[in-house]
Design goal:
By secondary structure, the protein is of the alpha/beta class. The chain is 38% helix and 14% strand. It has 2 domains: 3-167, Nitrogenase molybdenum iron protein domain (Rossmann fold, 3-Layer(aba) Sandwich); 174-297, Rossmann fold (3-Layer(aba) Sandwich). It has helices at residues 11-27, 50-58, 92-97, 110-119, 132-146, 149-170, 200-207, 226-232, 253-257, 264-267, 286-297; strands at 45-47, 65-68, 102-106, 124-127, 176-183, 192-195, 210-212, 221-224, 236-239, 271-273. The longest helix has 22 residues, at 149-170. The chain starts with 10 loop residues before the first helix and ends in an 8-residue tail after the last helix.
Length: 305
């Protein structure tokens, strides 16, 4: 991996962008993803990705989770669980000591962890993680692997309905051009990484009544400089770069974007920092993310009562 394969600036942003670049580098699934049989219902589960931890909670299998990655924040109960390391370098000795019978992670992590875990005799599940349809498929696969098929079916139905509800609410609204920034140099507008194409975030922006603007990219994730942002001149900017909001590392995000005072989104006050890490995760929370995006892209139609 290139620059994002090194030490992250902020753990959540690194996790997300590393996943994107891993997919772009060709380490996404190379064949159909098949969930392990639930014949032997796993009693001890480890999750190495925030999205899979969220799905395990959603299908009712969280009480069997015995450890999570360093980056998992939802549900709040993860605070009580052991942490087994990072996105591409989990602590295998610790994992083995916890005696799991299933380890779950995203497909983009598979090249780093799958063989190591299976060499220890532990069953694995790698779930797809790039598109909105992948988020739906992941729910199904996790439900099957954990023996919670019925709960997964219901969760999948609810998730699809929540996304579709936002789509219906925005289908007659004007399509505002949205620049979605998933990473950049903190405190500056250097090295902007944006969501576009068929990435699940870009798909959610379309559901929310926006049209993503981003450099052309086969993978759906592009790097750009601030001069290119001026050329694109988006109506709305969603700044999803995760960072501490207190202490010496905190920034004034709106002040940062005032580096581009002529930008339409800046002039009209449509630059929105989004600091909820779950919007970066392809799980059942995509419906809530779509709603959040819609409220920001079309606040006149989604005024909170």
């Amino acid at each position: 991996m290139k620059r994002f394969g090194n030490e992250m600036r902020v753990k959540s942003a690194f996790l997300f962008v590393a996943l994107l670049l891993a997919l772009a580098a060709g380490c996404a699934r190379v064949g159909p993803v098949v969930a392990p049989s639930s014949a032997a219902k796993p009693a001890r589960i480890i999750s190495l990705s925030p999205s899979t931890t969220e799905i395990l909670y959603g299908v009712g299998a969280f009480e069997r989770v015995v450890a999570v990655s360093d980056y998992c924040t939802y549900p709040p109960e993860v605070k009580q669980l052991p942490r087994v390391g990072g996105w591409n370098n989990p602590n295998m000795e610790q994992i083995a000591s916890l005696r799991p019978d299933l380890v779950v992670f995203s497909d983009a992590q598979a090249q780093f962890v799958k063989d190591k875990v299976e060499a220890a005799g532990i069953r694995t599940l790698a779930v797809p993680s790039q598109t909105l349809e992948d988020a739906y498929k992941s729910i199904e696969l996790v439900g099957r692997a954990t023996g919670e098929e019925e709960a997964a079916r219901k969760l999948l139905e609810q998730t699809r309905m929540s996304v579709e509800g936002v789509r219906l609410a925005t289908e007659r609204l004007p399509r505002r051009r949205v620049l979605c920034v998933v990473d950049r140099v903190p405190g500056t507008l250097r090295d902007l990484y944006t969501a576009g194409g068929d990435s699940f975030i870009a798909q959610l922006i379309r559901v929310a009544g926006g049209e993503p603007v981003s450099p052309p990219s086969r993978e759906g994730w592009g790097k750009m400089q601030k001069e290119a942002v001026v050329t694109l001149d988006p109506d709305v900017v969603l700044d999803l770069m995760m960072q501490p909001q207190t202490g010496g590392l905190a920034e004034d995000t709106l002040a940062v974007w005032k580096e581009l005072p002529t930008l339409r989104a800046v002039r009209e006050g449509r630059v929105y920092p989004v600091r909820d890490e779950t919007v970066l995760h392809p799980s059942q929370l995509v419906g809530a993310s779509a709603r959040r995006f819609a409220e920001l892209i079309h606040p006149e139609a989604f005024e909170k009562k």
